[in-house]
Design brief:
The protein is mainly beta. Helix content is 10%, strand content 48%. The chain has helices spanning 2-28, 228-244, 302-305, 427-434, 437-440, and strands spanning 39-42, 45-50, 55-64, 71-82, 88-92, 104-106, 110-113, 118-126, 133-143, 158-166, 175-184, 190-198, 204-213, 219-224, 256-258, 263-269, 277-287, 290-300, 318-321, 324-328, 334-343, 349-360, 366-369, 382-384, 388-391, 396-404, 412-422, 457-466, 474-483, 489-497, 506-513, 518-526, 536-542, 550-559, 566-574. The strands form seven sheets. A seven-stranded antiparallel β-sheet has the order 29-30-33-32-31-34-35, with no helix packed on it. Strands 2, 4, 5, 7, 9 and 10 form a six-stranded mixed β-sheet that branches. Strands 20, 22, 23, 25, 27 and 28 form a six-stranded mixed β-sheet that branches. The N and C termini lie far apart (69 Å).
């Protein structure tokens, strides 16, 4: 009797479970014409700088996303606490050490947002005397929701994070290493983890790396550090960038903020074969304007070593030394240089050599072109001593290169690429190589390829220089800005090299509001190794903070070695 009753209850519960899942699916995945929330909130981050005994003001906008329904909204304060993975969590207002919730006053805690309109919540922050450092709090904006007697009810809330920097008495940034060790990470890979504590009153950003040193003092591996929060952030950004076809964040942005009093776990994945044993972990962490350096013994166990990648065969048959040549020659004269091809295998290899034009795409990719297809081509002035050769096992072969400058050559730089390709050593390899697109293309990247069916290729970049007085010349031909998914502004500069020598410019952008107040400065990064003569290259940078709504002016300056920097200015709106 008991078992029959139990079976009936199981059937009833099973039916209820299925029905509940169906209801949950409808709520979580509504039709395109429906929306779970009826309001949006902006901004989601507020940055204030105030001195002790000073009051600051801020405004939050709750805007309707429904053209028909009014929305009730409840506003309240909450604490922001940073977790070890680098993310933040929110708690009821209390007594966290670096909170500023007691200093915040809101003009309202409940309001109605009419359909299709915007309502404003105004707040003030009064900093008490004697305070210093960084403080943080959250203003929670919670739309009203219908609490259903049965089924699933969904409750949304928006967290507006307020970061306060207190001016006046200087605060000293201080980071402390709590522990370091090798462990199994959440994704099943092996990694080395360093737990870093912010023991100061100031929030700061940190980035760094860890190296492993064996008992002989040799550095066997180095790993850039990240956090779980950063990894999640960049995965989301990568998806969004692909969807919106936007450029990725620059590497300078790869840093983790650490709140005062918080502890954050940084880690690096062990991505190469390392034998088990004892090592010295060398930490180098840059935070704020300071550096934390530490050494500590760590143990790589047999179990963790088994999670590392296995040794693989060499992916290249040969290497080039050096990969760049610079040859100077007077008009009508002949000068020589040389490079070596090193056979890395236990078998003889045959290689062919040819001369092509060299180009960098605006995004920095190395591209090969046919002779005389670029305005700075040196291909006709370059002569190789041989067109092909055989190199014995584990041996190297030197190759002489001649630069014959024409009698009419003006002072300046010309560029070319010497292309070295390994010839297939068997009929099967020849057939695969002859049918490979990379073997036939004249405009592919000059990087080596060892993929099955593709020819192995390396290049030597040659700069042929006719000495003389050369005045650098450059101009900004395009200046624009884009808004990234997170709200940060990305700036793009296209810089034309109008001279006869290469340029390695440094650029920056200064942003000011309509009142001529500084709103931010961005260091611009050149995407290609350099700007070749008579070509255009791209520079980019991302403003590290979000701007409030309004009109702004961005001024770009590019220092390229000329008497005056290249300048350009744009005006733009932030909505």
């Amino acid at each position: 009797m008991r078992s029959k009753s139990f079976y009936s209850i199981c059937k009833i519960n099973k039916f209820a479970l299925i029905l509940g899942l169906m209801i949950l699916s409808c709520l979580l995945f509504p039709s395109p014409s429906e929306s779970i929330g009826t309001i949006g909130v902006r901004p989601l981050t507020i940055n204030l700088e105030l001195a002790p005994n000073k009051k600051g003001e801020f405004t939050i906008e709750a805007y309707s996303t429904s053209p028909k329904e009014d929305a009730s909204v409840h506003i309240y304060l909450a604490e922001v606490a940073q977790k070890e993975d680098g993310s933040v969590d929110f708690f009821d207002a209390g007594e966290l050490p670096y909170s500023c919730t007691p200093w915040i006053k809101l003009d309202k805690t409940d309001l109605i947002v009419p359909a299709g309109e915007v309502a404003k919540i105004r707040g003030t922050v009064l900093v008490p005397a004697g305070k210093s450092g960084s403080r943080v709090a959250a203003i929670m904006v919670e739309p009203g929701y219908e609490k259903k007697p049965t089924g699933v009810s969904i409750k949304l809330r928006y967290a507006v994070v307020l970061k306060l920097n207190i001016q006046g008495r200087p605060t000293i940034e201080q980071a402390e290493l709590k522990k370091i060790g090798i462990k199994k990470l959440a994704d099943g890979t092996a990694g080395i983890e360093a737990l870093i504590a912010n023991t100061s009153e100031a929030e700061f950003k940190a980035r760094g790396k860890i190296s492993l040193q064996d008992s002989s003092g040799k550095i066997v591996a180095g790993f850039p550090l990240t956090t779980e929060a950063l990894e999640r952030k960049y995965k989301n950004e990568e998806k969004e960038n692909k969807r919106m076809k936007k450029a990725p964040q620059q590497e300078d942005e790869d840093a983790q903020s650490i709140f005062p009093g918080a502890r954050v776990a940084f880690f690096g994945r062990l991505d190469k074969p390392i034998p088990p044993g004892e090592y010295t972990a060398i930490l180098n962490l840059k935070y704020g304007k300071k550096t934390l350096a530490a050494k500590q013994k760590v143990v790589l166990s047999q179990e963790l070593a088994s999670l590392l990648p296995k040794e693989s065969a060499a992916t290249s048959s040969f290497e080039i030394k050096p990969a760049n040549l610079e040859i100077k020659g007077q008009p009508g004269g002949v000068r020589a240089g040389s490079f070596s091809i090193v056979n890395l295998t236990q078998e003889p290899i045959q290689v062919s050599l040819s001369v092509k034009d060299l180009e960098y795409s605006p995004e920095g990719e190395t591209v090969l072109r046919e002779k005389n297809s670029t305005p700075y081509s040196a291909a006709d002035c370059i002569e190789l001593e041989i067109g092909e050769c055989t190199i014995g096992p584990r041996l190297s072969r030197g190759i002489a290169v001649k630069f014959a400058a024409p009698h009419s050559a003006e002072p300046g730089e010309r560029y070319a690429a010497i292309v070295i390709e390994k010839k297939p050593s068997s009929a099967a390899e020849q057939e695969a190589s002859s049918s490979s697109p990379s073997a036939q293309s004249s405009s592919t990247s000059g990087q080596n390829s060892s993929t099955s069916g593709q020819a192995e290729r390396e290049i030597v970049e040659v700069a042929a220089i006719v000495p003389g007085q050369i005045e650098p010349a450059a101009e900004i031909v395009n200046f624009k800005h884009l808004t990234q998914s997170g709200g940060n502004l990305e700036f793009i500069l296209e810089v034309k090299n109008s001279g006869l020598s290469h340029l390695e410019p440094k650029g920056r952008i200064m942003v000011k509001d309509i009142y001529n107040h500084d709103a931010g400065q961005i260091e611009m990064k050149l995407l290609s190794p350099l700007i070749l003569p008579k070509t255009v290259a791209r520079m980019r940078g991302v403003l590290g903070k979000k701007l409030s709504a309004g009109e702004y002016v961005a001024t770009a300056e590019v220092d390229y070695g000329g008497k005056e920097a290249a300048r350009s200015k744009i005006t733009f709106m932030v909505k």
